[in-house]
């Protein structure tokens, strides 16, 4: 399961209701921030998420409404927060701008009090943990070398508690060993194998996050089959020409992408204050009913159907 916490959901400039682009993805003990618009550190405090273990920052691209919050947040890390290490990921174009911001404005020749790693990445696998991985993929947005990110849980075999009870497998290390694929011997001498208490292999959930995108039709292979896709919907279809001019997408275009790519649910963000929320939602749901709008401080759990909301 992944958990999403939206910190900023506005397009280009903040509004009264929405801050600039940022969200957090949680999985077990890991936390990833995706983008860090101006004012993000205050949104972190208001959300109740806090700064603990917030040491992986994934940037979709280097436009200012997606990176300016880094300066204030890193300044806070340097003075107040105990952060062991900060890793910032992005394309070369993005990291050039981030380096200017951090080294030229924040540090100005000083050394960071913690390891601060500016990591230039390319499309492909960028992070591997025991239970999930993160891949980057290219996104078309005004020549900014933008990246999207796909979080994918590894497949697993669910533990069948009823079967374990019937076999007399006690709680504790015995069940842990079975989950890890090891056979166990019970006190009465019976041998229980993993296949006796593990169900059929199930694919893990997948979550796709796309920042600004001018040609969503190019993303089919990267978002295909995702359980949840988070993506911008800066314009309505009536302003499609303006969307193309500025390298953004309409609610219609991203809803069509979700429908044609077999996405489970669609969450729209990067919303413009020029439109009413209900109009954006209605336009997308006319094509893809499983669409939701993100608001600042919304939380979503990304699970497989039948495993909760």
Helix count from the secondary structure assignment? 11
Helix and strand run: EEEHEHHEHEEEEHHEEHEHEHHEHEE
Strand content: 15-25%
Overall helicity: 25-40%
Rg measurement, Å: 22 Å
Mean residue pLDDT:
94
What is this structure's SSE topology?
Layout: E1 2-8, E2 22-27, E3 30-34, H1 40-47, E4 56-58, H2 64-67, H3 69-79, E5 86-90, H4 92-107, E6 116-120, E7 124-128, E8 132-139, E9 146-153, H5 161-167, H6 173-179, E10 184-185, E11 191-192, H7 194-197, E12 206-209, H8 220-223, E13 228-232, H9 240-246, H10 251-260, E14 265-269, H11 277-285, E15 291-293, E16 299-302
Parallel strand pairs: 3-4, 4-5, 5-6, 12-13, 13-14, 14-15
Antiparallel strand pairs: 1-2, 1-16, 2-3, 7-8, 8-9, 9-12, 10-11
Word description of this protein:
By secondary structure, the protein is α/β, with parallel strands linked by helices. The protein has 2 domains: 2-155 and 203-301, Ribonuclease Z/Hydroxyacylglutathione hydrolase-like (Metallo-beta-lactamase, Chain A); 161-197, no CATH class. It contains 11 helices and 16 strands. The protein has helices spanning 40-47, 64-67, 69-79, 92-107, 161-167, 173-179, 194-197, 220-223, 240-246, 251-260, 277-285, and strands at 2-8, 22-27, 30-34, 56-58, 86-90, 116-120, 124-128, 132-139, 146-153, 184-185, 191-192, 206-209, 228-232, 265-269, 291-293, 299-302. It has a 7-stranded mixed beta sheet. The chain is globular, with a radius of gyration of 22 Å. The model has no long low-confidence stretch (mean pLDDT 94).
């Amino acid at each position: 399961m992944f958990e999403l916490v939206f910190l900023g959901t506005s397009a280009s400039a903040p509004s009264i209701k929405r801050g600039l682009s940022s969200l957090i993805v949680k999985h077990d003990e890991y936390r990833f921030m995706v983008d860090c618009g101006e004012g993000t550190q205050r949104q972190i405090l208001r959300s109740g998420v806090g700064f603990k273990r917030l040491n992986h920052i994934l940037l979709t691209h280097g436009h200012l409404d997606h990176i300016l919050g880094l300066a204030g947040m890193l300044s806070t890390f340097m003075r107040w927060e105990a952060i062991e290490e900060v890793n910032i990921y992005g394309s070369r174009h993005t990291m050039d701008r981030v380096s200017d911001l951090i080294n030229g404005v924040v540090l100005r020749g000083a050394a960071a009090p913690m390891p601060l790693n500016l990591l230039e990445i390319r499309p492909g696998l960028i992070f591997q943990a025991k239970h999930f991985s993160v891949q980057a993929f290219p996104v078309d947005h005004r020549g900014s070398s933008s990246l999207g990110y796909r979080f994918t849980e590894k497949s697993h075999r669910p533990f069948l508690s009823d079967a374990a009870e019937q076999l007399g497998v006690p709680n504790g290390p015995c069940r842990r060993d079975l989950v890890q694929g090891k056979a166990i011997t019970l006190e009465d001498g019976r041998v229980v194998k993993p296949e006796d208490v593990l169900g059929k292999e199930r694919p893990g959930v997948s979550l796709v996050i796309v920042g600004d995108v001018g040609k969503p039709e190019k993303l089919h292979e990267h978002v295909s089959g995702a359980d949840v896709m988070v993506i911008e919907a800066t314009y309505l279809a009536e302003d499609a020409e303006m969307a193309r001019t500025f390298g953004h997408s309409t609610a219609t275009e991203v809803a069509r992408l979700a429908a044609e790519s077999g996405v489970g649910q669609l969450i729209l963000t990067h919303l413009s204050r020029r439109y009413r929320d209900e109009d954006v939602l209605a336009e997308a749901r006319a094509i893809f009913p499983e669409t939701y709008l993100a608001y600042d401080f919304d939380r979503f759990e990304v699970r497989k159907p039948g495993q909760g909301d």
